[in-house]
Specification:
It contains 17 helices and twelve strands. Helix 8 crosses helix 9, helix 9 crosses helix 11 and helix 11 crosses helix 14. The N terminus is likely disordered. By secondary structure, it is of the alpha+beta class. The protein has a five-stranded mixed sheet with strand order 1-2-8-5-3. It has a three-stranded antiparallel sheet with strand order 4-12-9. The protein has one domain: Cytochrome p450 (Orthogonal Bundle), CATH 1.10.630.10. Helix content is 49%, strand content 10%.
Length: 460
Protein backbone atom coordinates (compact mmCIF):
# COMPACT_ATOMS: atom_id res chain seq x y z
CA UNK A 1 0.00 0.00 0.00
CA UNK A 2 1.37 3.39 -0.97
CA UNK A 3 1.31 5.76 2.03
CA UNK A 4 3.01 8.72 0.33
CA UNK A 5 1.42 11.98 1.31
CA UNK A 6 -0.56 10.33 4.12
CA UNK A 7 -0.45 12.27 7.36
CA UNK A 8 0.47 10.05 10.26
CA UNK A 9 -2.40 9.60 12.71
CA UNK A 10 -1.86 10.91 16.23
CA UNK A 11 0.44 8.64 18.23
CA UNK A 12 -0.84 6.68 21.19
CA UNK A 13 1.48 8.68 23.48
CA UNK A 14 0.00 11.94 22.29
CA UNK A 15 -3.51 10.51 22.72
CA UNK A 16 -2.98 9.75 26.40
CA UNK A 17 -5.94 10.72 28.57
CA UNK A 18 -5.42 13.93 30.56
CA UNK A 19 -5.31 13.87 34.37
CA UNK A 20 -8.76 13.92 35.92
CA UNK A 21 -7.90 17.26 37.56
CA UNK A 22 -7.56 18.81 34.06
CA UNK A 23 -11.31 18.18 33.53
CA UNK A 24 -12.49 19.19 37.01
CA UNK A 25 -13.74 22.62 35.77
CA UNK A 26 -16.40 20.91 33.63
CA UNK A 27 -19.62 20.28 35.61
CA UNK A 28 -20.65 16.67 36.15
CA UNK A 29 -20.66 13.64 38.42
CA UNK A 30 -18.18 10.78 38.09
CA UNK A 31 -20.17 8.44 40.32
CA UNK A 32 -18.70 5.62 42.41
CA UNK A 33 -14.98 4.91 42.87
CA UNK A 34 -13.58 2.61 40.14
CA UNK A 35 -16.88 1.77 38.37
CA UNK A 36 -17.97 5.40 37.98
CA UNK A 37 -21.40 5.69 36.36
CA UNK A 38 -21.02 2.56 34.18
CA UNK A 39 -23.93 0.72 35.84
CA UNK A 40 -26.28 3.72 35.44
CA UNK A 41 -25.40 3.94 31.74
CA UNK A 42 -25.93 0.19 31.23
CA UNK A 43 -29.24 0.21 33.12
CA UNK A 44 -30.83 3.21 31.42
CA UNK A 45 -28.61 5.12 28.96
CA UNK A 46 -31.40 7.43 27.78
CA UNK A 47 -32.53 8.30 31.32
CA UNK A 48 -28.89 8.73 32.44
CA UNK A 49 -27.95 11.23 29.70
CA UNK A 50 -31.23 13.14 30.08
CA UNK A 51 -30.81 13.40 33.88
CA UNK A 52 -27.17 14.48 33.57
CA UNK A 53 -28.05 17.08 30.90
CA UNK A 54 -30.93 18.41 33.02
CA UNK A 55 -28.59 18.77 36.03
CA UNK A 56 -25.31 19.89 34.41
CA UNK A 57 -26.15 21.10 30.90
CA UNK A 58 -25.26 19.84 27.43
CA UNK A 59 -21.53 19.65 28.19
CA UNK A 60 -20.88 17.43 31.20
CA UNK A 61 -18.25 15.22 32.82
CA UNK A 62 -18.84 11.55 33.65
CA UNK A 63 -16.87 8.33 34.22
CA UNK A 64 -17.74 5.17 32.29
CA UNK A 65 -15.76 1.94 31.64
CA UNK A 66 -12.84 3.20 33.73
CA UNK A 67 -12.23 6.61 32.15
CA UNK A 68 -13.43 10.16 32.75
CA UNK A 69 -15.07 11.49 29.60
CA UNK A 70 -16.98 14.54 28.42
CA UNK A 71 -20.43 14.29 26.79
CA UNK A 72 -21.21 16.93 24.16
CA UNK A 73 -24.93 17.00 23.38
CA UNK A 74 -27.17 18.36 20.62
CA UNK A 75 -26.89 18.94 16.85
CA UNK A 76 -24.11 21.59 17.11
CA UNK A 77 -21.97 19.18 19.14
CA UNK A 78 -22.70 16.39 16.62
CA UNK A 79 -21.56 18.66 13.78
CA UNK A 80 -18.37 19.74 15.60
CA UNK A 81 -17.33 16.17 16.41
CA UNK A 82 -18.54 14.25 13.33
CA UNK A 83 -18.05 16.75 10.50
CA UNK A 84 -14.57 17.50 11.89
CA UNK A 85 -12.85 19.07 8.89
CA UNK A 86 -9.86 20.11 11.01
CA UNK A 87 -9.07 16.53 12.17
CA UNK A 88 -9.64 17.44 15.78
CA UNK A 89 -11.20 14.11 16.83
CA UNK A 90 -9.74 10.60 16.52
CA UNK A 91 -12.15 7.74 15.86
CA UNK A 92 -9.31 5.21 16.23
CA UNK A 93 -8.59 6.25 19.81
CA UNK A 94 -12.28 6.74 20.60
CA UNK A 95 -13.36 3.19 19.71
CA UNK A 96 -10.08 1.42 20.56
CA UNK A 97 -10.99 0.33 24.10
CA UNK A 98 -14.34 -1.11 22.97
CA UNK A 99 -13.54 -2.68 19.59
CA UNK A 100 -9.74 -2.68 19.23
CA UNK A 101 -8.98 -6.19 20.47
CA UNK A 102 -11.64 -7.98 18.42
CA UNK A 103 -12.17 -5.76 15.36
CA UNK A 104 -8.78 -4.03 14.93
CA UNK A 105 -8.38 -1.69 11.97
CA UNK A 106 -11.98 -1.93 10.82
CA UNK A 107 -12.98 1.12 8.81
CA UNK A 108 -14.49 2.88 11.84
CA UNK A 109 -11.18 2.42 13.68
CA UNK A 110 -9.09 4.26 11.08
CA UNK A 111 -8.43 7.99 11.02
CA UNK A 112 -8.03 10.83 8.56
CA UNK A 113 -5.98 10.17 5.38
CA UNK A 114 -5.54 6.47 6.07
CA UNK A 115 -9.30 6.15 6.63
CA UNK A 116 -9.98 7.97 3.34
CA UNK A 117 -7.65 5.64 1.38
CA UNK A 118 -9.27 2.49 2.78
CA UNK A 119 -12.79 3.86 2.40
CA UNK A 120 -12.13 4.59 -1.27
CA UNK A 121 -10.82 1.04 -1.82
CA UNK A 122 -13.81 -0.49 -0.03
CA UNK A 123 -16.38 1.64 -1.85
CA UNK A 124 -15.98 -0.62 -4.94
CA UNK A 125 -18.01 -3.25 -3.04
CA UNK A 126 -20.98 -0.85 -2.78
CA UNK A 127 -21.19 0.26 -6.43
CA UNK A 128 -24.34 -0.47 -8.44
CA UNK A 129 -23.19 -3.77 -10.05
CA UNK A 130 -22.36 -5.51 -6.76
CA UNK A 131 -25.43 -3.94 -5.07
CA UNK A 132 -27.71 -5.55 -7.70
CA UNK A 133 -26.11 -8.90 -6.92
CA UNK A 134 -26.62 -8.39 -3.15
CA UNK A 135 -30.25 -7.39 -3.76
CA UNK A 136 -30.93 -10.64 -5.63
CA UNK A 137 -29.45 -12.65 -2.73
CA UNK A 138 -31.32 -10.63 -0.06
CA UNK A 139 -34.58 -10.85 -1.97
CA UNK A 140 -34.57 -14.63 -2.34
CA UNK A 141 -33.34 -15.20 1.25
CA UNK A 142 -35.98 -12.91 2.81
CA UNK A 143 -38.74 -14.36 0.58
CA UNK A 144 -37.94 -17.91 1.75
CA UNK A 145 -37.81 -16.89 5.43
CA UNK A 146 -41.10 -14.94 5.41
CA UNK A 147 -42.79 -17.95 3.75
CA UNK A 148 -41.51 -20.10 6.61
CA UNK A 149 -42.84 -17.59 9.16
CA UNK A 150 -46.25 -17.72 7.42
CA UNK A 151 -46.45 -21.43 8.12
CA UNK A 152 -45.58 -21.18 11.82
CA UNK A 153 -48.15 -22.55 14.28
CA UNK A 154 -50.22 -19.85 16.03
CA UNK A 155 -48.79 -18.24 19.15
CA UNK A 156 -46.12 -15.66 19.97
CA UNK A 157 -42.82 -15.71 18.09
CA UNK A 158 -39.72 -14.06 19.56
CA UNK A 159 -38.92 -11.64 16.79
CA UNK A 160 -35.42 -10.41 17.76
CA UNK A 161 -33.67 -13.83 17.70
CA UNK A 162 -35.53 -14.72 14.48
CA UNK A 163 -34.34 -11.44 12.90
CA UNK A 164 -30.78 -11.98 14.16
CA UNK A 165 -30.67 -15.42 12.55
CA UNK A 166 -32.03 -14.02 9.29
CA UNK A 167 -29.49 -11.15 9.09
CA UNK A 168 -26.63 -13.56 9.87
CA UNK A 169 -27.81 -15.96 7.15
CA UNK A 170 -28.18 -13.06 4.69
CA UNK A 171 -24.67 -11.82 5.55
CA UNK A 172 -23.32 -15.29 4.79
CA UNK A 173 -24.93 -15.34 1.34
CA UNK A 174 -24.58 -11.70 0.19
CA UNK A 175 -21.27 -10.95 1.97
CA UNK A 176 -19.53 -14.32 1.77
CA UNK A 177 -21.35 -15.73 -1.27
CA UNK A 178 -21.71 -19.07 0.49
CA UNK A 179 -24.70 -21.14 1.42
CA UNK A 180 -24.89 -21.89 5.13
CA UNK A 181 -22.85 -25.05 5.55
CA UNK A 182 -20.99 -26.48 8.56
CA UNK A 183 -17.98 -24.15 8.11
CA UNK A 184 -20.00 -20.97 7.59
CA UNK A 185 -22.14 -21.95 10.57
CA UNK A 186 -18.93 -22.05 12.63
CA UNK A 187 -17.87 -18.67 11.26
CA UNK A 188 -21.21 -17.05 12.15
CA UNK A 189 -20.97 -18.52 15.67
CA UNK A 190 -17.48 -17.01 15.97
CA UNK A 191 -18.93 -13.61 15.00
CA UNK A 192 -21.62 -13.90 17.67
CA UNK A 193 -18.91 -14.57 20.29
CA UNK A 194 -16.79 -11.61 19.08
CA UNK A 195 -19.73 -9.19 19.15
CA UNK A 196 -20.79 -10.28 22.65
CA UNK A 197 -17.19 -9.93 23.90
CA UNK A 198 -16.77 -6.40 22.49
CA UNK A 199 -19.09 -5.04 25.22
CA UNK A 200 -18.32 -7.56 27.98
CA UNK A 201 -17.53 -5.94 31.36
CA UNK A 202 -14.38 -8.13 31.78
CA UNK A 203 -11.92 -6.75 29.21
CA UNK A 204 -9.20 -9.44 29.58
CA UNK A 205 -9.44 -12.88 27.88
CA UNK A 206 -9.24 -14.83 31.14
CA UNK A 207 -10.33 -18.48 30.88
CA UNK A 208 -14.09 -18.93 30.86
CA UNK A 209 -14.84 -15.25 30.10
CA UNK A 210 -16.83 -13.86 27.20
CA UNK A 211 -13.64 -12.07 26.08
CA UNK A 212 -11.78 -15.40 25.90
CA UNK A 213 -14.55 -16.77 23.66
CA UNK A 214 -14.36 -13.58 21.54
CA UNK A 215 -10.58 -13.86 21.09
CA UNK A 216 -10.95 -17.53 20.10
CA UNK A 217 -13.72 -16.50 17.66
CA UNK A 218 -11.44 -13.89 16.08
CA UNK A 219 -8.69 -16.49 15.57
CA UNK A 220 -11.25 -18.69 13.74
CA UNK A 221 -12.35 -15.77 11.54
CA UNK A 222 -8.76 -14.79 10.68
CA UNK A 223 -7.96 -18.38 9.71
CA UNK A 224 -11.10 -18.71 7.54
CA UNK A 225 -10.68 -15.44 5.63
CA UNK A 226 -6.91 -15.81 5.17
CA UNK A 227 -7.40 -19.25 3.61
CA UNK A 228 -10.24 -18.07 1.37
CA UNK A 229 -8.60 -14.89 -0.04
CA UNK A 230 -6.35 -16.54 -2.69
CA UNK A 231 -9.27 -18.80 -3.74
CA UNK A 232 -11.57 -15.76 -4.20
CA UNK A 233 -8.92 -13.85 -6.15
CA UNK A 234 -8.65 -16.76 -8.56
CA UNK A 235 -12.34 -17.64 -8.86
CA UNK A 236 -13.99 -14.22 -8.54
CA UNK A 237 -17.61 -13.76 -7.54
CA UNK A 238 -20.26 -11.11 -6.98
CA UNK A 239 -20.33 -11.28 -3.17
CA UNK A 240 -18.80 -8.54 -1.01
CA UNK A 241 -15.86 -10.71 0.10
CA UNK A 242 -14.84 -11.48 -3.49
CA UNK A 243 -15.18 -7.78 -4.38
CA UNK A 244 -12.78 -6.82 -1.55
CA UNK A 245 -10.31 -9.51 -2.59
CA UNK A 246 -10.02 -7.72 -5.96
CA UNK A 247 -10.17 -4.13 -4.62
CA UNK A 248 -7.09 -1.95 -5.06
CA UNK A 249 -5.62 1.22 -3.62
CA UNK A 250 -5.02 4.29 -5.81
CA UNK A 251 -1.57 2.98 -6.82
CA UNK A 252 -3.11 -0.29 -8.09
CA UNK A 253 -1.90 -2.41 -5.16
CA UNK A 254 -4.35 -5.03 -3.92
CA UNK A 255 -5.50 -4.76 -0.31
CA UNK A 256 -3.30 -6.91 1.93
CA UNK A 257 -4.59 -10.16 3.42
CA UNK A 258 -4.61 -8.53 6.86
CA UNK A 259 -6.58 -5.52 5.57
CA UNK A 260 -9.23 -7.75 3.97
CA UNK A 261 -9.55 -9.88 7.12
CA UNK A 262 -9.96 -6.76 9.28
CA UNK A 263 -12.44 -5.05 6.94
CA UNK A 264 -14.58 -8.17 6.43
CA UNK A 265 -14.73 -8.84 10.19
CA UNK A 266 -15.80 -5.28 10.86
CA UNK A 267 -18.31 -5.00 7.98
CA UNK A 268 -20.14 -8.21 8.90
CA UNK A 269 -20.32 -7.17 12.56
CA UNK A 270 -21.51 -3.65 11.69
CA UNK A 271 -24.05 -4.79 9.11
CA UNK A 272 -25.72 -7.63 10.92
CA UNK A 273 -25.95 -6.27 14.47
CA UNK A 274 -27.17 -2.78 13.60
CA UNK A 275 -29.66 -4.05 10.99
CA UNK A 276 -31.02 -6.66 13.42
CA UNK A 277 -31.63 -3.85 15.91
CA UNK A 278 -33.16 -1.42 13.39
CA UNK A 279 -35.45 -3.95 11.70
CA UNK A 280 -36.63 -5.27 15.07
CA UNK A 281 -37.50 -1.72 16.21
CA UNK A 282 -39.22 -1.12 12.83
CA UNK A 283 -41.40 -4.24 13.25
CA UNK A 284 -42.11 -3.37 16.90
CA UNK A 285 -43.21 0.12 15.80
CA UNK A 286 -45.57 -1.02 13.04
CA UNK A 287 -47.02 -3.70 15.37
CA UNK A 288 -47.76 -0.98 17.95
CA UNK A 289 -49.13 1.40 15.27
CA UNK A 290 -51.50 -0.67 13.07
CA UNK A 291 -52.63 2.39 11.08
CA UNK A 292 -49.04 2.76 9.84
CA UNK A 293 -48.80 -0.96 9.16
CA UNK A 294 -51.87 -0.65 6.88
CA UNK A 295 -50.42 2.37 5.06
CA UNK A 296 -47.09 0.65 4.44
CA UNK A 297 -48.81 -2.56 3.30
CA UNK A 298 -50.87 -0.51 0.82
CA UNK A 299 -47.62 0.99 -0.53
CA UNK A 300 -46.12 -2.50 -0.93
CA UNK A 301 -49.26 -3.90 -2.64
CA UNK A 302 -49.24 -0.93 -5.04
CA UNK A 303 -45.87 -2.19 -6.39
CA UNK A 304 -47.91 -4.88 -8.19
CA UNK A 305 -45.42 -7.68 -7.45
CA UNK A 306 -46.46 -11.31 -7.11
CA UNK A 307 -45.23 -13.00 -3.94
CA UNK A 308 -42.49 -14.88 -5.80
CA UNK A 309 -41.54 -12.01 -8.10
CA UNK A 310 -38.08 -10.49 -7.49
CA UNK A 311 -37.88 -6.79 -6.66
CA UNK A 312 -35.86 -4.28 -8.69
CA UNK A 313 -34.11 -1.05 -7.67
CA UNK A 314 -36.89 0.91 -9.42
CA UNK A 315 -39.52 -0.73 -7.20
CA UNK A 316 -37.45 0.00 -4.08
CA UNK A 317 -37.51 3.67 -5.10
CA UNK A 318 -41.31 3.51 -5.12
CA UNK A 319 -41.40 2.88 -1.33
CA UNK A 320 -40.94 6.37 0.18
CA UNK A 321 -43.30 5.81 3.14
CA UNK A 322 -41.47 2.60 4.07
CA UNK A 323 -38.16 4.46 4.02
CA UNK A 324 -39.62 7.22 6.23
CA UNK A 325 -40.95 4.62 8.71
CA UNK A 326 -37.52 2.92 8.83
CA UNK A 327 -35.91 6.32 9.47
CA UNK A 328 -38.39 7.06 12.27
CA UNK A 329 -37.64 3.65 13.88
CA UNK A 330 -33.93 4.57 13.82
CA UNK A 331 -34.69 8.00 15.25
CA UNK A 332 -36.43 6.42 18.23
CA UNK A 333 -33.83 3.67 18.73
CA UNK A 334 -30.59 4.65 16.96
CA UNK A 335 -28.50 1.52 16.34
CA UNK A 336 -25.40 3.24 17.78
CA UNK A 337 -26.72 5.34 20.68
CA UNK A 338 -23.37 6.91 21.64
CA UNK A 339 -20.32 7.72 19.46
CA UNK A 340 -16.87 8.12 21.13
CA UNK A 341 -13.92 10.16 19.87
CA UNK A 342 -10.64 11.34 21.41
CA UNK A 343 -9.46 14.93 21.06
CA UNK A 344 -6.18 15.23 19.14
CA UNK A 345 -5.64 18.85 20.30
CA UNK A 346 -6.93 21.26 22.93
CA UNK A 347 -10.28 22.76 21.94
CA UNK A 348 -13.18 24.67 23.46
CA UNK A 349 -16.94 24.22 23.12
CA UNK A 350 -19.69 26.34 24.64
CA UNK A 351 -17.14 28.17 26.78
CA UNK A 352 -15.41 25.06 28.18
CA UNK A 353 -11.71 24.42 27.53
CA UNK A 354 -11.16 20.71 26.84
CA UNK A 355 -7.56 19.37 26.69
CA UNK A 356 -5.97 17.08 24.09
CA UNK A 357 -6.42 13.38 24.81
CA UNK A 358 -9.89 13.81 26.35
CA UNK A 359 -12.38 11.07 25.52
CA UNK A 360 -15.52 12.82 24.26
CA UNK A 361 -18.86 11.35 23.19
CA UNK A 362 -21.81 12.60 21.17
CA UNK A 363 -25.17 10.98 21.77
CA UNK A 364 -27.61 10.25 18.91
CA UNK A 365 -30.09 8.80 21.43
CA UNK A 366 -30.29 12.15 23.25
CA UNK A 367 -30.42 14.27 20.09
CA UNK A 368 -33.13 12.07 18.54
CA UNK A 369 -35.41 12.74 21.54
CA UNK A 370 -34.92 16.50 21.98
CA UNK A 371 -38.53 17.80 22.11
CA UNK A 372 -37.53 21.18 20.66
CA UNK A 373 -36.47 19.34 17.46
CA UNK A 374 -38.84 16.37 17.59
CA UNK A 375 -42.21 17.34 19.18
CA UNK A 376 -43.66 14.41 21.18
CA UNK A 377 -40.42 12.48 20.69
CA UNK A 378 -41.82 9.18 21.99
CA UNK A 379 -44.56 9.10 19.34
CA UNK A 380 -43.93 7.09 16.16
CA UNK A 381 -44.51 9.48 13.26
CA UNK A 382 -42.78 8.72 9.93
CA UNK A 383 -44.09 12.03 8.49
CA UNK A 384 -41.25 13.73 10.37
CA UNK A 385 -39.18 12.67 7.35
CA UNK A 386 -41.11 14.29 4.51
CA UNK A 387 -38.99 16.74 2.49
CA UNK A 388 -41.00 19.62 3.89
CA UNK A 389 -40.66 18.53 7.55
CA UNK A 390 -36.89 18.13 7.16
CA UNK A 391 -36.31 21.48 5.48
CA UNK A 392 -35.74 23.60 8.58
CA UNK A 393 -34.05 20.90 10.67
CA UNK A 394 -30.36 20.96 11.59
CA UNK A 395 -28.52 18.49 9.33
CA UNK A 396 -26.94 16.83 12.38
CA UNK A 397 -30.25 16.44 14.25
CA UNK A 398 -30.62 12.86 12.91
CA UNK A 399 -27.42 10.79 12.90
CA UNK A 400 -28.19 7.03 13.04
CA UNK A 401 -25.47 6.48 10.40
CA UNK A 402 -22.97 8.86 12.09
CA UNK A 403 -21.80 11.70 9.81
CA UNK A 404 -18.88 13.44 8.11
CA UNK A 405 -15.98 11.31 6.84
CA UNK A 406 -17.19 8.36 8.94
CA UNK A 407 -20.75 8.36 7.56
CA UNK A 408 -21.71 4.68 7.33
CA UNK A 409 -20.34 3.19 4.09
CA UNK A 410 -23.18 0.65 4.05
CA UNK A 411 -25.99 3.24 4.34
CA UNK A 412 -27.53 2.39 0.94
CA UNK A 413 -27.12 -1.32 1.66
CA UNK A 414 -29.09 -0.81 4.90
CA UNK A 415 -31.96 0.99 3.12
CA UNK A 416 -31.98 -1.67 0.40
CA UNK A 417 -32.20 -4.53 2.92
CA UNK A 418 -34.82 -2.71 5.03
CA UNK A 419 -37.13 -2.05 2.07
CA UNK A 420 -36.62 -5.54 0.66
CA UNK A 421 -37.48 -6.97 4.09
CA UNK A 422 -40.54 -4.69 4.51
CA UNK A 423 -41.85 -5.68 1.07
CA UNK A 424 -41.85 -9.44 1.83
CA UNK A 425 -42.89 -9.08 5.47
CA UNK A 426 -45.90 -6.82 4.79
CA UNK A 427 -46.97 -8.70 1.66
CA UNK A 428 -47.08 -11.97 3.61
CA UNK A 429 -47.74 -11.22 7.27
CA UNK A 430 -49.71 -9.11 9.68
CA UNK A 431 -47.96 -8.40 12.98
CA UNK A 432 -49.53 -7.60 16.37
CA UNK A 433 -48.30 -7.24 19.92
CA UNK A 434 -49.94 -9.22 22.70
CA UNK A 435 -52.67 -7.34 24.62
CA UNK A 436 -51.26 -5.03 27.34
CA UNK A 437 -47.70 -5.72 26.16
CA UNK A 438 -45.16 -3.19 27.49
CA UNK A 439 -41.90 -3.14 25.52
CA UNK A 440 -38.67 -3.27 27.52
CA UNK A 441 -35.54 -2.44 25.54
CA UNK A 442 -31.86 -2.56 26.47
CA UNK A 443 -30.63 0.62 24.74
CA UNK A 444 -26.83 0.21 25.02
CA UNK A 445 -24.49 -0.69 23.33
CA UNK A 446 -26.83 -1.66 20.46
CA UNK A 447 -30.57 -1.53 21.23
CA UNK A 448 -32.40 -4.83 21.60
CA UNK A 449 -35.60 -5.95 23.36
CA UNK A 450 -34.78 -7.64 26.66
CA UNK A 451 -37.58 -10.18 26.18
CA UNK A 452 -36.83 -10.88 22.49
CA UNK A 453 -40.00 -8.96 21.40
CA UNK A 454 -42.79 -11.57 21.34
CA UNK A 455 -45.11 -10.85 18.38
CA UNK A 456 -48.21 -12.50 16.93
CA UNK A 457 -47.88 -13.16 13.20
CA UNK A 458 -50.78 -14.12 10.92
CA UNK A 459 -50.83 -14.62 7.13
CA UNK A 460 -52.20 -11.75 5.02
Amino acid sequence: MSMQGVAAPPTAAFMKAPKRSALAHIPGDEGWPIIGRTLSVLADPKGEVERMAATYGQVYRSRVLGETSISLLGPEANELVLFDQTKLFSSTHGWETILGRLFPRGLMLLDFDEHRLHRRALSVAFKSGPMKSYLAQLDSGIAARTQRWRQQPPGPMLFYPAMKQLTLDLAATSFLGTEIGPEVDEVTRAFIDMIAASVAPVRQPWPGTQMARGVKGRARIVEYFSRQIPIRREKGGDDLFSQLCRATHEDGALLSTQDIVDHMSFLIMAAHDTLTSSLTSFVGAIAANPEWQHRLRAEVMALGLGRDEPISFDKLEAMPLTEMAFKEAMRMKPPVPSIPRRATRDFSFKGYAIPAGTLVAVNPLYTHHMPEIWPEPNRFDPLRFTDEAQRGRHRFAWIPFSGGAHMCLGLHFAYMQAKCFARHFLQNLDVKLQPDYVPNWQMWPIPKPKDGLPVLLSPV
